[in-house]
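ok so I'm stuck.
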Amino acid sequence: MDSLLERFLRYVRIDTTAVDDSKTYPSSSGQLELGKVLVGELAALGVSDAVQDENGIVFGTVPGGVAGAPTIAWLAHMDTSPESSGAGVRPLVHEHYDGGDITLPGDPTKVIRTAESAELAGLNGKTLITSDGTTLLGADDKAGVAIIMAAAEALAADRGIRHGPIRIVFTCDEEVGRGVDRLDPSKIGAVAAYTLDGEAAGLIENETFSADLATVTVTGYNIHPGLAEGRMVNAVRVAAQFLSRMPWQRLAPETSGRRDGFLHPYVIEGGVAEVKIKILLRSFSTAELGEQANLLRAIASGLAAEHPRAKLDVAIEEQYRNMAEALRCAPRVVDLAVAAVRRAGEEPRFKSTRGGTDGSRLSALGLPTPNLSAGMHNFHSSLEYACLEEMESSVRTLLELAQLWAAERQVD
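replied:
not stuck anymore, here's the structure
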């Protein structure tokens, strides 16, 4: 526990915020900095092939000691969400959590409330880690990074644990949808993988959204407002009308749940001459993404008819696909995760996550990759917190997974 906590507290202090519109990979220098730290720590644990490649991705192999055991992989991402600041994180450790609301001292208006975070009810008496309220914490996904490093440390310390080769991979820019852009599954060289990028202990995410990104570009014409009559085309006004015609009582994150998909405008920037709107398209059914895209195109078409001098373009970019589509072809990968969670002392719970992971894309590329708990909660916000005991449970789960896979035989 002490080693796990110490690692986590060090990692979150490194600013690895992903930059959404960056043209570089990784999008921020802090990811390279953390990667160098991790390579050094892996090498100190005896991972002789630890390396940070030209894209900033960290690779390493914990050698196996069981002949014929298949290679598996553990993955986490080094970046944090750009939705809240990750600069100057000051982590706070709350030992023996008393079950009440947690006021964050750096900004007393920021309060983690039991009424708004149902998971707190089960964490009474445990050790929680938060930021001071001025930044996010970075448990997403530095909790996953710390868990993997602690598991690797345990394997290095106890040669009696029977396991096959374990590939360790730390990716970049997952939070901006580019975590697998520079990652070839063949370079991992595993038959199965597990991301450590989930919530409460015992959770197994074997289904995610399918996801696309729409960029709506509204092109107008700017001129001095004193000379604008009959000449100006205000892209800001047209963009506002576009947003007002998007459904919000349905197909919106704030009015949908469970297995409902949504359209989520999350960035708008520009001026009179041009406005760009970024919209997330999400559904558990990949086919429904096409319907959502067509709805946006229909709104654009209607506005183009009303504003013939404006130009509206809707560009769709594929992001990731529901991992369940691939995992159905590899049930053993999930079955062994269930067994490992039980052997670690937790009750397995399945969740269809209303988001995505690196595993979504890796699964689609042929490497089945469900997502496991990392003990993180309220991520992407200054109200984020992590539970140390849940993180420790995830370390035990990885060690059990390693042993279960060692009992498997390589399938040709």
